[in-house]
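I had to read the description of the data format several times before I understood it. For illustration, here is how one protein appears when written out as sequence plus structure tokens:
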Amino acid sequence: MTSAPSPEISIVIPMYNEEANVRQFCSRLFETMATLSETWEVVCVDDGSSDRTLELLRKEQAARQGMTVVALARNFGQHAAIMAGFAQSHGRWVITLDADLQNPPEEIPKLVNAFQAGHDLVGTVRIERQDTRFRKWASRLNNRLITRISGISLQDFGCMLRGYSREVVNGILANPEYRAFLPALATFFARNPVEIPVSHEERAGGASKYSLLKLFSLQLDLLTGFSLWPLRAMFFMGTGVACLGFLLGLLILALRLYYGPGWAAEGVFTLFALLFCFIGAQFFAFGLLGEYIGRIFQSVRKRPPYILGDVLRK
């Protein structure tokens, strides 16, 4: 059933240049949703794609019931697209997933079962990941590092297949943050979260939209958005560098007095090397401070995270 005005389940899918996957994804998704007894809706958000993604979504919508297509005015990023999907969804439970089919739609019933068991936030952990060895190693390292720094206990920060109760979604929408990492932000509003294992597949078609630079930017958002640890680490590092510089100064003074002025002239390059290290540490500190100040600047301007271009319902 898909005609109820307030469905029990909303499926939110952000899409950016996914023309190679739209047909297969919609086919598998709607076949899976048809097996559920709960009422549902599907909200596809086109994040300013430059290919035929939006065109294909409209064709799929014309042939299916219960599908809403949201078109953003331009590319705002994955998490902004999810926010747009949240705002247009009506379900009591909201499930997000990618359109590249690495998150199989057939896993959705597992999240529904978790909601029925009383959980209000359902995270997932990818088992038997179909990624390169480097990507899996980097993901494990990143998960451990972010958990230790931020205090947010998630086993898999990178899996998009997640479930949010309406209360959690409303909390996120009522408290928008600049470039917020939504899975981590959701833990703030959840009372009974859980993580469940899900399968993982190779990308069906097209190329990944997350380059190493984008992945680094995403982790920086997570780090600076949910922890003051970098600022504190910078303070301790600065204190350590200052103490080291003071001790080195005393050592150089003592050696100069012991060996005479000639020794000091011969150590000029060592001093330059140490100076460059200290300057590098200062620039690192300024960059980190700039990241925090930049987030404050973006927040106080209160610009919307996205701009709607069109919303087509059926």
Q: What stands out?
A: The longest strand covers residues 9-15. The beta strands are 9-15, 40-46, 67-72, 93-96, 121-127, 162-165, 193-199, 308-312. The chain has a mean pLDDT of 81.
